[in-house]
Amino acid sequence: MVSIKGVRRRRLRLGAVSTIAIGLLATAAATPAFAADKPAKPTVVLEHGAFADASSWNDVIKELRRDGYPVVAAANPLRGPANDAAALRSVLDHVEGPKILVGHSYGGSVISAAGANDPQVKALVYVAAFLPAPGETALELTNKYPGSTLPDALDPVPFTLPGGATGTDLYIKPGTFHHQFAADVPAGTAALMAATQRPIAQSALEEKAEAAAWQDKPSWAVIATQDLNIPVDAQRYMAKRARAHVTEVRASHSVAVSHPKTVADVIEKAARATR
């Protein structure tokens, strides 16, 4: 039989334990965890280029998220550097904190414009991409060196806007897409990419750049040495001019699809260097 005094002592002990537990919980809540003291990782903002869409970053996103980076893959209208940079800036304005901008192909022209004069943009990563200086066009840079076979692979499609303005959208012909754009990507994947490709306005490739964020921000470049869209020598020229940290990969223009880990590693190097 348990005495009344024993019950009371047990209740007192339980009450003391509860008080201690509550005190510990309160202390834990008031004291931030060690991880919380670490600076937050910057958000990686990915901008796709012509003849692609945001899904071309899928495997890169998986790598970055696995390492704890917040990621946004923006939709690129592909209408012209000024227009597309304005669209990207609306995304950047919505993302709080420091950011790393990553552009593939024509997306490099867009991040160069969108990242200018933005103190929250800490670094730029160009993936088989254009790094135009003010006054230059993507077409001009493509033709600066031999090696691009893109013109013969293009399928021009005229369009008329509701207001009467006309123009030409450029696609890559489905039958040549695998060889031209993604030679080192499995044929089935390349076929899906061809079917879902986004066209670029021809005028976008002829529009002069107005700003170049790489002139005053640190830059990294992934150069695809087997690229049939942007000649490798053009990529090297632009990266050297920008004093970019260069990684060369034996890859097609779709290097982010065929070598996502390599691309993600370069992005993370840029992020770590600017923290």
From TrEMBL:
Residues 44-266 form the AB hydrolase-1 domain. GO terms for molecular function: hydrolase activity. It comes from the Bacteria. The keyword Lyase does not apply. InterPro entries: AB_hydrolase_1, AB_hydrolase_fold, Sec-Metab_Biosynth_Hydrolase. Keywords: Hydrolase, Signal. Residues 1-35 form the signal peptide. Pfam families: Abhydrolase_6. PANTHER family: AB HYDROLASE-1 DOMAIN-CONTAINING PROTEIN-RELATED, ESTERASE_LIPASE_THIOESTERASE DOMAIN-CONTAINING PROTEIN. This is Alpha/beta hydrolase. It comes from Streptosporangium carneum.
